[in-house]
Amino acid sequence: QVQLVESGGGLVQAGDSLRLSCAASGRTFSTYTMGWFRQAPGKDREFVAAISWSGTRRDYADSVKGRFTISRANAKNTMYLQMNSLKPDDTAVYYCAAAIATYGSSWSGYDYWGQGTQVTVSS
């Protein structure tokens, strides 16, 4: 079992930055693909970014490419999402997720989820 806890969300203005963190329990964090997803009110959960277990492969949704950066520190069992140039459309609950055996952008491929952290961007 893996427990994931997100932190770092908040209320910011358009153009500001935030860094989300995802702390994981367990000794196998370094073997998991990790991902960030988000869900805005009335919308489906959508992929934001993913990072391979080694950190050598990273993928982003087109909507955040060039503004967001995903990273991980396996020695700290922690993953990050640096979000720059935030827009009101980025407003959502952000979830971190861990995948045991897959890599990708489909939420169904992820096995463990955090409880989410709210990010609100005002215009």
What's the gist of this structure?
The chain has 123 residues and is mainly β.
Could you characterize the architecture of this molecule?
It is a single chain. This protein is mostly beta strands and 123 residues long. The chain has no helices and 11 strands. The chain has strands at residues 4-7, 10-13, 18-24, 33-39, 46-51, 58-60, 68-73, 78-83, 92-99, 112-113, 117-122. The strands form 2 sheets. Strands 2, 4, 5, 6, 9, 10 and 11 form a 7-stranded mixed sheet that branches.
Q: List low-confidence stretches.
A: none
Estimate percent helicity. under 10%
Distance between the termini: 40 Å
Largest sheet: 7 strands, mixed
Which term fits the overall shape?
globular
Q: What average pLDDT do the residues reach?
A: 96
Number of strands: 11
Rg estimate, integer Å: 13 Å
Number of helices: 0
User: Can you write the helix and strand succession as a string?
Assistant: EEEEEEEEEEE
Strand content: over 45%
State the secondary-structure class.
Answer: mainly beta
Quick tags:
123 residues, 11 strands
Describe the secondary structure blueprint for this structure.
Layout: E1 4-7, E2 10-13, E3 18-24, E4 33-39, E5 46-51, E6 58-60, E7 68-73, E8 78-83, E9 92-99, E10 112-113, E11 117-122
